[in-house]
Amino acid sequence: MARIINTNSPGKRRNAHMRTIAELLRLLSQQRDVSATTKDMVASIVLNLRAISGTVEESVVAWEKRGYWKKADDFQQKWWWCELMAPSIEALIREEDWDQLPAALAKLFPHCADINVSKMTRKPDAWLGSYAKLMNEKVD
User: pLDDT per residue over 91-104, tens digit each?
Assistant: First the structure.
């Protein structure tokens, strides 16, 4: 039997989500007013932050199974900011507090600083409809 290799690892997905966030931040910095596209972009950032949190949890569970408790804890601490940022930005979206949004998004820049965005690789359909998807979710 051949060994099955998963090429869609949590690390690759996490990097893709971070790249998407970095590109969205660059595009959002060029926006002058709050349009439907702006709302979609910001909602997409929230969804990508949630997805990153999911990949972190995946990695942590795998390391804990192997007994790498310290490594799992350190890794979780490194990515803890995603767990904090997603709900805070989502709250701004739901409250339509668009004036506070630039300050909240500015907190993401240090986490994306090492991503070089020389060319946009994401197409607009990557974030199209994200606002509606986020708003249709049931709020606890």
Answer: 999 999 999 999 99
Angle at 117 between CA 43 and CA 132, to 5 degrees: 15
Q: Give the chain's length.
A: 140
Where are the domains positioned within the chain? 10-135
pTM, two decimals, is 0.90
Name the amino acid, one letter, at 61: V
Structure confidence by residue, pLDDT tens digits, 55-109: 999 999 999 999 999 999 999 999 999 999 999 999 999 999 999 999 999 999 9
DSSP labels, 93-137: HHTT-TTTHHHHHHTTHHHHTT---SS----GGGTTTHHHHHHTS
How far is residue 20's CA from residue 3's CA, in Å, rounded to a whole number?
Answer: 31
At 47 the three-state DSSP class reads helix
Q: Specify the residue for token string 């051949």.
A: 2
Structure token digits, residue 108: 């993401």
